[in-house]
Amino acid sequence: MSEVEKQSYIYYQKALCDGTHIAYLVFDESRCIGTGGVSFFQVMPTYHNPSGNKAYIMNMYTNPEYRRKGIAYQTLDMLVKDAKRKGISAISLEATDMGRPLYQKYGFVKMNNEMELLETSVGSSE
Fold it and tell me: Which domains does the chain show, CATH number per domain?
């Protein structure tokens, strides 16, 4: 088992039990044709997010044979509604070029101010 698989297993064992992650598997009879998940976490409260509670949507996938049938949109809708039921309005995700139109259709907007420190750039002097 790779380190990612091992850590994912540990994560899901805990998070699915304590409610900090919700995952949906979409089936056509016994065949899994789609997935989606949402992870819940807390950051320091701000004026824009007084509770500090956030949701991060991840692992969105639909089998190519089932795309363009509304499956991803419905899965996304369930995940967003789950977050809102928890009182969370700060919901984010990372979008691939293929997924971006779906998320924009739902109402997600591109963020321009967020940055990420990549491990390969640590200590670089550029």
Answer: 14-103 (3.40.630.30)
